[in-house]
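Subject: Re: docking follow-up (pyridoxal-5'-phosphate)

Dear J.,

Thanks for your patience while I sorted out the input files. As discussed at Tuesday's group meeting, I've set up the holo structure prediction with pyridoxal-5'-phosphate included as the bound ligand rather than trying to dock it afterwards. The sequence and the ligand SMILES I used are pasted below, so you can double-check that they match what you have on your end before we go further.
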Amino acid sequence: MTTLTREYFVELDCQDVLADYRDQFDLPEGHIYLNGNSLGVLPKAAKARAREVVEQEWGQGLIRSWNSADWIHLPRRVGDKIAGLIGAAPGEVVVADSTSVNLFKLASAAVKLRPGRGKILSEPGNFPTDLYILQGLEKFHDGRVRLNTVHRDEILDAIDEDTALVVLTHVHYKSGAMFDMKAITNRAHEKGALVLWDLSHSTGAVPVALNEVDADFAIGCGYKYLNGGPGAPGFLFVAQRHQAQLQQPLSGWFGHANSFAMRDDYEPAPGIERTLCGTTPVIGASLLEVGVDIMASADMQQIREKSLKMGELFIELVGQRLDEYGFGLASSKDPAVRGSQVSLTHEQGFAIMQALIARNIIGDFRAPDILRFGFTPLYVRYVDLWDCIEALAEIMASGEWDKPGFRKLTAVT
Ligand SMILES: *Cc1c(COP(=O)(O)O)cnc(C)c1O
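The structure tokens for the complex came back this morning:
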């Protein structure tokens, strides 16, 4: 294996077909941001759009903007754009609520589509909110549906005739491990079960082809790889074939067939809009649209290629520069089953990450011992990876991580 040099990384940036996208983002000077998997960065255009939504559409247009600025169609308009990023058709995706709430709506609806089956299947160590929401659903049904978690390698075999729904996160938030969406969806359908995919770490990060794999349901996040801004609304997907029968429990007025008829009785909208509940978070959805537009203008294959190259180089650098410091690799070396992140393990992971962040190199820490580095090819440069590892090597060699200030736990890690 040849020794890598900083010059090589600079050269890769010169040849990078995605390099110009970086200019569309407002990254603070002197920062290396490897946390776009948790909160994406601010698109420059979002600043202008925020002013416009607040000052013009809200400030001047007031209530008229529901029509004149087309606020009423935001869930569907932005949803159709996201559909293009995940291999879904127009009319199968809406932007609404949070990922957690969308999971509750769709998991409840899915279980109703499989009466008589008592099992929801997931994996231990799935993203906490996914398990918590499913535990809530279990309680809500007084145990008539049970959540059963089995190790990811045993999921295929655990899907049986009693399984109503399989709920999995496509790319694992900690390790970046990626499920074979097609294999699991096929097995579930063979057994008569449905599948709900959480795409929070997939959308905008890896190619997803929901209709190609015959997916049933999906949910995902707006503020991670889509760069929608803090607390941006989430999205949900319901395959066309399930929409007419779908009954979701949060039957609010935005999901009504005719919201402004103001009738006493609920009648679900004919299509995907029946998954809506209440008033759209207009400002958040408008800013999300800016991030989605940038993502939609980029080539997902090129994004994936750069992301994989980054992952491979990062792992190689860890081997070359950090070998003696006790780091482990929590992500697979096989790029085919890895999302757009590489996670390392270290006993002192929290303090080490704090020392890195103090140098404006931002990744994050996930308990108990995971240091996460997310690769967002539209604004991260190859040379950033070199500089990150260089800084880590310095932090370890000098013992810089061992300052008392870096050991103090913060409310959000
Ligand atoms: C980030 C994330 C969520 C977030 O859910 P919210 O309701 O937006 O807080 C859910 N699931 C997964 C897998 C995530 O990574």
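A couple of observations from a first look. Residues 317 and 323 are 9 Å apart (CA to CA). Residues 98-100, 127, 129-130, 169, 173, 198, 200-201, 221, 234 surround pyridoxal-5'-phosphate (CB under 6 Å).

Let me know if you'd like me to rerun anything.

Best regards,
T.
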